Amino acid sequence: MSDATTQQTDKGAGSMLLEMRGIKIEGQSEDTWFPIIKGMDLTLRRGEVLGLIGESGAGKSTMGLAAMGFARDGCRITAGTIKFDGVDLLAMPESERRKLRGVRIAYVAQSAAASFNPAHRLIDQCIETAMFYGVASAAEARQSTIDLFRRLHLPDPENIGERYPHQVSGGQLQRVMTAMAMACSPDLIVFDEPTTALDVTTQIEVLASIKEVVRELHKAAIYITHDLAVVAQMADRIMVLRYGEVVEEAPTRQMLSDPRQPYTKSLWAVRSLRKDEDTSGDTVLAIRNVDAAYGGGVRVLHDINIKVPRGRTVAVVGESGSGKSTLARVITGLLPPENGTVEFNGQALPPALAQRPKELLRKVQMIYQMPDPALNPKRRIGDMLGRSVSYHMGLSGKDRSRRVSELLEMIELDDSYRERLPMELSGGQKQRVCIARALAVEPDLVICDEVTSALDQIVAEEILKLLLRLQKDLGVTYLYITHDIATVKAIADEIVVMHQGKVVESGPKSQILSPPHPPYTELLLSSVPEMDPDWLDNVLAERARGGAGATAVDGS
Amino acid sequence: MSNQNEPMTAGPAEEITLAARRRRGAFSAAMHEVLKAPPTAKFGLIMIFAYLFVAVFAPLLAPYGEAEVVGRQYAPWSDEFVLGTDQIGRDMLSRLIFAARNSVSIAFLTTLIAFLLGSMLGLLSAVVGGWIDQGLGRLVDVLMAIPSLIFTLVLLTIFGTDLITLILVIALFDATRVYRLSRAVAVNVVVMDFVEAARLQGEKLPWIMAREVLPNILPPLAAEFGLRFTFVFLTIAALSFLGLGIQPPTADWGSMVRENATLINYGDITPLLPAAAIALLTVSVNFVVDWFLHKTSGLRDV
Amino acid sequence: MHPVFRTCLQRLALGIATLWVVSVIVFSMFELLPGNFAQAVLGQAATPEIVENFNKRAGLDRPFLERYGTWLTGAVQGDFGLTFGSLTSAGTQARTVASVIMPRLENTLFLAAAAAACSVPLALGLGLLAALYRNSIFDRVVNAATLTSISFPEFFVGYILMLFLAVQHPWFYATASVDSTTSFWEHLARIGLPVIGLTLVIVAHMMRMTRAAIINLLASPFIEMARLKGMPPSRVIWHHALPNAWAPIATVVALNLAYLVVGVVVVEVVFNYPGVGQLMVDAVQSRDIPVVQACAIIFATVYILLNLSADIIGIATNPRLLHPR
Fold it and tell me: Which end of chain B lies in a sparser environment, N or C, as judged by fewer CB atoms within 10 Å?
């Protein structure tokens, strides 16, 4: 049974809507069944919002779907009762359960683009359930859906439903999916990571819309996410999951201020890492007046000028489409620039990779966001590191072996990892190996392309600490590309903010992070959720007053 | 859409499969898999080995010579000629056995040539990209725009039906399919970051092709080899049946069907035997490849 | 111009260009013939006068480009010149390739159409059922059966059918001999066995590919979303899956009908059916080059047309192109 520390909720507004007791769910992998949920209880009252938080693999999505009496292909519910409004879902035949879905319990998926049928109009998909189950007439259903579009602040609510999914942007589509879920006025809505795939400036609009509409219509909701700050905004009560069990459960404010369990505490502590900035040092990398474009002639970078001091960390911050990844490609020579030069140690680099000699190549290395595609699945760790060491540093035999051991020690893995294949390592360990591979050739500059974005928060913090330590020990310079402000605070000495291929501002960390800010920076910084339940309401009130950051981009 | 914020760790599912994959010797792992295989795959493997055995030991197994005239025409089944004789008086059983050696080895050789050519070019195209990729792609598009059997017939008209021509022509057309597949799977690997990381560490083209990409595309290539073999084998059989493939007196199942076809009209199943021999080998290879694809693609079904 | 229309035109242009390139290749391949045509066709014993006479009648004494030009302009109008076979014996009436091919082309198209009409609905239905009930006993049996079926050479299937359904039990005609006097219904009856043979092989291929395409489609997130909205399986299939299935299914059908083109050749020989396939095989053996060229172009045209149709259906049913931003 779970080790839960359940604290009484004094919210008590409505009657019990959902009671899940003793839920056990199994998943299938290569002909064997293994437990995903190991015996969990979950209760929800009418009008209450419960946040389900945990790392991936914790079972949040599975529980969310189970609340609807649904198990994905390859999963099965093996034990427990699910009482929805007094009726046991698991005791019913599937045909009866189906009648509840969409009508009384609805689901909002993570990826709106993939969840809409590309062949049908949005409005038709929204009213489908209502029409099928005769909940309303066609005209009524349409009208109430348009009302929902309006409540969710969608542009042109009267007509947006006539469009097809591919004609509408990501953030808008997410809101349309929310409208679709609310179309039959269900009692319970399950939100499964609805803003995870969105940019932070888009996310805030969607979060606000969802929160408003759930409150106004007194809906009960389960809000699933891995992002602590987001769940702080949206939920009345939070449940922390880990490996299919409940770790802790408490009302939001109480859990934020006073977490009990060590695991919960460690999650909460993550975002407090800070680096003291230091901007001294000669310039190791200078990007001068660089323009770059991709094959179709579409220009992606406009007149970029950046200087990176030796032994320090410059964070390049931006959202998708800002050009930050393209910048990395220009520096490494994978995409020669149209105009401008990249200077390394005062000397201009040959624009294309093929023109650079081996000796020069090793000076600039890159670490990638996703550790899985970054390591060859067929090569052992020891071989991989050994190759870098022998190919570039000319070591062989015992020297090479010793060096590999040194590298492993540097990344805090023991010698047994030599013989392992990447598939035997966890995400964090794989990322450490990627760091070792980059450092094996003793570079001057390491470009970190969102290296912690795909990792769970605790693991991410460890990697950041490792990177900082290595910088201190080896004097390596980092160009750290990210979209996450918390990471920037943790690791940067200087910051460069990019938006749509241009540098919006750059300078020392403290300068960039304190006001006054240019409009985009203001928008970006204010859109990052914080661990304060009132944050969202405050930002929105601020923007409504026309204050800073009012340039809410509703092309989102 | 790249998912910027989705975190990952080894969750419970991965932990268990990691444990299950604790390293065994490659051979015992393979044996373990074979024992778990469905009956169709086991049947296929047994039959393939049987055919290989017959092909290798043909001269020892056949009662008479390959082209020896030993009796009168169309003799019925008897103790002397277990499956009777053909239209000239040669022993059917012996010819069937020798044909195993001929048909299978010619098909294998052709497949090997097609495979090496197609996969090397496909791999090269995927890794290098650019003009080479475009050029080869256009060429392959044109070659594939004509049904290969038809084009083969055209080329056989020009160059005649000797064995070398046959092998080279069929290998050329088959190579286009292998090219398409190997390029497609290689491209999926080339876009992975580890290939780019290798480039950034200064690795040259031969290294990247042989050590980074190739080891990761072996399973689909192996499966494709099996499938190609079946197509080549059936194509050669069809051509021989039409009189345009392997020429007599070489024993070959396809031409044996043609030579004895008239017997069908008398209700005699003899001409079906070489055809059945072709079908049985093809079925066996297909069963094994199907099982292999099922295992390696990681998909639960399909 | 609407994107769908424009993309279709582009594909059509590409198809015509490909066909033209193929015609160049087919025509110029024969330039590679060691020695010259006449020697190859007439044999070693031909005297120089016979050879020269032949060359003149066949127009082989003119330069390459002129010959190609004549051939191409003629081909577009359906005139492929004279058959070599009819030119080899002096004094006989020279026959045009077209006159030899036309009746056979009609026969082959008739056979192909009959086979397609039988196989397409059957294959799509079986494929859909197998996808819906995947991993059931039905699916496994069908999988093994189709895998077996695609492994059989067409002549094997043909002769088995002939043996059991015509010779041992005379329910069908053993050979499909038809001529210009055969009525529609008798023609249909006579091609019974060839149609069954072709259908068996094509259904197997088509069914497997349909099954794979539908399974792939059913794994899409929007299908799961439909189920989460409470839609029953029938509606999920008909309303959600099928509208997105046209493109993959059209591709499957077109590819397999292209396969039909090749299967027809062997089947015609097995059942002695006077079609283009049998004609081509005879022409290859006698090295009647104009006939081989014409047959090759016809097959290539059909093949390219089928692939083009699959492409165009895919384009015309793509919502992103139908309703641009």
Answer: N
Strand order of the β-sheet with A87-88 is A32-45, A16-29, A75-84, A87-88
Are C119 and C112 a contacting pair, CB within 8 Å?
no
pTM: 0.84
Chain A residues bordering chain C (beta-carbon distance below 8 Å):
65, 68, 70, 72, 95, 98-103, 106-107, 109, 111, 114-120, 128-129, 132-133, 163-164, 166-167, 180
Contact partners of C by the rule of 3+ C-beta pairs under 8 A? A, B
Torsions phi, psi for A88 (to 5 deg): -80, 115
* Cα-based torsion angle of the residue sequence B46, B51, B55, B57 in order, rounded to the nearest 10 degrees: 50
Among candidate residues A212, A242, A272, the one where a domain is terminated? A272
Question: Tell me: the pLDDT tens digits for A249-277?
Answer: 999 998 888 888 888 887 776 566 777 77
Minimum distance, in Å, between the CA of residue C217 and any CA atom of chain A: 11
Same structural domain, A289 and A354:
yes
Number of domains in chain A: 2
Position A496 in a domain: yes
CA A99 to chain centre: 34
Of A95, A106, A166, Cβ closest to residue C320: A166
Stretch among A148-162, A348-362, B61-75 having the lowest mean pLDDT: B61-75
Residue B55 included in any domain: yes
The range of the structural domain enclosing residue A235 comes to 2-92+100-111+179-272
Q: What is the residue type of C227?
A: R
Chain A residues lying within 8 Å of C235, measured CB to CB: 132
Closest Cα partner for A97 from C312, C260, B64, C230? C230
What gap in Å lies between CA A381 and CA A370, rounded to an integer?
Answer: 17
CATH code, domain with B274: 1.10.3720.10
Q: Which amino acid is at C286?
A: S
Q: Does C156 touch chain B (CB under 8 A)?
A: yes
Beta bridge partners of B69: B90
CA atoms of A217 and A205, how far apart (whole Å): 18
Domain count, chain B: 1
Taking CB atoms and an 8 Å cutoff, what residues of chain C touch B241? 153, 155, 266, 269
CATH code of the domain containing A491: 3.40.50.300
Tens-digit pLDDT string for chain B (302 aa): 333 344 444 444 454 445 455 555 667 777 887 888 888 889 999 999 999 998 888 888 888 877 778 777 777 777 777 777 777 888 888 888 888 988 999 999 999 999 999 999 999 999 998 899 999 998 898 888 778 888 888 888 888 778 888 899 899 999 999 999 999 999 999 999 999 999 999 899 999 999 999 999 998 899 999 999 999 999 999 999 988 888 878 888 988 888 888 888 887 788 888 999 999 999 999 999 988 888 776 543 33
Same domain, A258 and A289: no
pLDDT score, position C225: 94
Q: Determine the structural domain holding residue B249 and report its residue range.
A: 39-65+80-296
Does B292 reside within a domain? Answer: yes
Tokens matching residue A163: 């469009």
Is A165 a member of any domain? no
Residue C208: closest CA among chain B residues belongs to which residue?
Answer: B302
Q: Are A329 and A337 in contact (CB under 8 A)?
A: no
C 256-275 residues with CB below 8 A of B?
258, 261-262, 265-266, 269-270
Please report whether residue B208 resides in a domain: yes
Q: Does C164 touch chain A (CB under 8 A)?
A: no
Phi, then psi, of A59 in degrees rounded to 5: 105, 15
Query: Is A84 part of any domain?
Result: yes
In a domain, A212, yes or no: yes
Contacts 24+ apart (CB under 8 A), A411-418: A411/A435, A411/A436, A411/A466, A412/A466, A417/A381, A417/A382, A418/A380, A418/A381, A418/A382
